[in-house]
Design a protein that fits this description.
The complex is a heterodimer of chains A (about 260) and B (about 650).
Chain A: H1 2-16, E1 23-24, E2 49-63, E3 68-79, E4 84-94, E5 97-110, E6 117-126, E7 133-144, E8 148-157, E9 161-170, E10 172-173, E11 178-189, E12 201-213, E13 219-230, H2 232-240, E14 246-257
Antiparallel strand pairs in A: 1-2, 2-3, 2-14, 3-4, 4-5, 5-6, 6-7, 7-8, 8-9, 9-11, 10-11, 11-12, 12-13, 13-14
Chain B: E1 3-5, E2 22-24, H1 26-37, E3 54-56, E4 59-69, E5 76-81, E6 89-93, E7 97-104, E8 113-115, E9 139-145, E10 150-155, E11 167-173, E12 184-193, H2 198-207, H3 219-229, H4 231-243, E13 260-263, E14 272-275, E15 282-288, E16 295-298, E17 304-309, E18 312-319, E19 321-324, E20 329-334, E21 342-348, E22 355-360, H5 459-463, E23 469-471, E24 527-536, E25 541-544, E26 555-557, E27 562-569, E28 575-579, E29 584-586, E30 596-597, E31 599-602, E32 607-613, E33 618-624, H6 627-631, E34 635-640
The chains are: A mainly beta (about 260), B mainly beta (about 650).
Chain lengths: ~260, ~650
Amino acid sequence: MPRLALQLVFAGALLASFEAMPVCAQVPATPVDAPAPASGWPKPVEDNRVLTFVTFDQLEGRTNGPNTAFRWDGEGWIGTDFNKLWLKSEGRVTNGDTSDGDQEILYDRPIPHLRYFDWQAGVRLDLDSGPTRAWAAIGVQGLAPYFFNFAPTLYIRDGGRVAGRIQGSYDLYLTQRLILQPQVELNFYSQPDRGRGIGTGLSELDSGLRLGYQFSRKFAPYLGYAYSGVFGQTATFSRQAGEPTSAPRFVFGAWVWH
Amino acid sequence: MRIKSEMHTPETDHSFTLTRRRFVQGIAASGVAAFVGGKFNLAAAETTSHSPPVLTGNHFDLAIEAHQVDFTGRRVKAIKINGTLPGPTLKWHEGDTVTMAVTNHLPAETSIHWHGMRIPTAMDGVPGLSYAGIAPGKTFVYRFPVPQNGTYWYHSHSGFQEQLGLWGALVIEPRDKDPIEYDRDYVVLLSDWTDTKPETLYSNLKKQSDYYNFHRRTAGTFIEDVKNKGLRSTVADRLSYGRRNMTPADIADVTSATYTYLMNGNPPDANWTALFKPGERVRLRFINASAMTLFDVRIPGLPMTVVQADGNCVRPVTVDEMRLGVAETYDVIVQPHEEMAYTIFAQPESRGRYARGTLAPRMGMTAEIPPMDAYPLRTMADMGMSGMAHMKGMKMGGMSSDQMPGGKDMQMKGMSDNSMPEMKDMDMSGMKDGAIDPLAGKTPFPQPGPRTTRLMPPPSRMMSRPAQTREGELPLRLGPEVASVPMNTSPRLHDPGDGLNGNGRRVLTYADLRALYKGVDGRPPTREIILHLTGNMERFIWGFDGHKLSEAEPIRLKLGERVRFVLINDTMMEHPIHLHGLWSELENGSGEFSPYKHTLLVKPAERVSYLISADTPGRWAFHCHLLYHMAAGMFRSVVVS
């Protein structure tokens, strides 16, 4: 229960920031020179405004008929062009049981000499109905050529355990408002973690194809199909636990951002 | 109707026919319109044709207040001056000393900048450079001699207040006889209005830079392109843009997806109307007072003769259409001979909606509204021909000054820094207030006019040739602030701009602008300052040389020096670049008749040069006049000392 509470704090922080208003950063002004402006003059323009952003790439029900799970995958930031604090949150609730709980706090900066990529470093917490794990996280996120959203992240925790995650998606504009989005997330682990049912190698895949309509830029309901599965040793653990190794589902939800 | 007529003594009219000039107050005209329409209603002023009131004299009281407006069916907050949007047109006389007492009734700091005016830096109205701004509840008194004539405008330089309506026109009557002959005189202020709070608009752009672009390339446009160009070239084109995460459909950051376009504060349906009698010469003073919109202006059926650009007279050139960058002004003369209505049509470069008014012999008339032109796409020329370089430490190919347009006549003779020309050639008679101080040689040069002469360095100085120095030629590298660096940049002075080529109409270009009077400063520049216009559309970061204002040092000019600015646009968008306080003399091949401008629209992958006489000390703003580019950092200060 406290885990779920913590999880809600993360998701809640993202949601709460919907209400947050941009504030002005207090960054040193242009160097003063003759004829010097008096102290207390404002800057001619405030080009380091602190903004907030929240987006949910997945905020959806996943159903195969008898069973419906709720899945969220959201992220947000607060900061300026060059310094941002990111929050990421994802997880799945099935029959009151939360899995895939992943919460991250990351510091983010643009990578010099790359136009569209930021590096991010911080902490990942696996918070769900399973045992809690804490990881150090470092990754990049941005726009690869040809407009692919791409975010690989490396995680390390005690005992030299290493994990990796690659997220990618593409927005295919069928019309100015109708968007087809293929999406994939892959998770890798260097060592098994029986407590969380995770084996070595490629452990999980979550993928989907969603068709959304932008009623506005910030609100686009979608329908789609998602496939998530476990592989290799992880699949073996799942079978031993009597759980399915794959979950093809129809999904319905909405892309929202603020 | 309140009509102001001016007396002219016959002896001042040589080649010009004397006519009774009338400055028609649109508010009177529209009052008639409203009366005729039977729905004169002050509360719904925005939907009834109206013009800003005209204030004349030497002293002006301006009250800045928040007001509700309704341009779209929603009542939202705007800022008005003396209760009007646009603010009142201020009519000044060259040589007068004017006083404006500006009172701030807003809850936030405000300011008024007199755009294009050559006045002391403390009166320039830029918070942070000229003064602290005008605090809530306070009154700031601007007072300065009016050293020039022509059409200008004024606007807030605080936050996003320009977007909310804080602007108006300046009309300055020349001290000498106006070389422009006309019977009627109208200000035509073009602007863009959004019901969205500008802070929200800015934040939307920062988070999704194509938020307002509904002309993206889609599966549908792919199929169309394949039909038109074939599969191979369509795929090649998509890959070429896609590799850089760019799109040729990136025309404007803010479009009619949110904007309603206004003419003198009137949405298109309110149909702002200017009256004429057939045969009369009508002067239209077009001012682009928008925040983010480039307007393409035409009057179907009526050729327009451009007589003034940015307040300075140019040799008359007759066109069907012209593009106004944000903050640019063009005065045109039209002479309708028919007893019929004509539509004044201003479509944004990104098309969609339009601003519209009517020229008519009587109120209540309308003419056909032309169909909107096709949405333009960026071309290879906008990418710098051979595409973008991935600048792995590569140095920008700079250009020598002899490649500069109009530079040929300027470059043989340099002169030592600081040296001022002798003043004996100067005709001082036209400069009562702003007379050049021959001792200091450092008071502002007058605006070119019938009584000014060109000031040349003495022959002895012209023989010696100190080396020109060049600054700012940075090895630009791609990065978060520089998304593209074109391989080739070139002057595109003969190019009317994207969306205007091959439309069957005669469109004004910068190459057409030739000043009516010789420029007063004939000295060659001693220094070249090269600045790249840079940006990253995806991140919505804009700047000069890859830096925002907060990361950059001021540009320093020595008082009295003559400098060439070279702007190289590395982005895929136009940028109207405005230098406060000093003239920008566009080098467009007109030599000593180079046009004096205050704002220069620089096309994608274009290289433009202009000369500056640093004749007024101060801290001057230098920025892109696209409001949200400026807010994102495309701003420098220029210190003349």
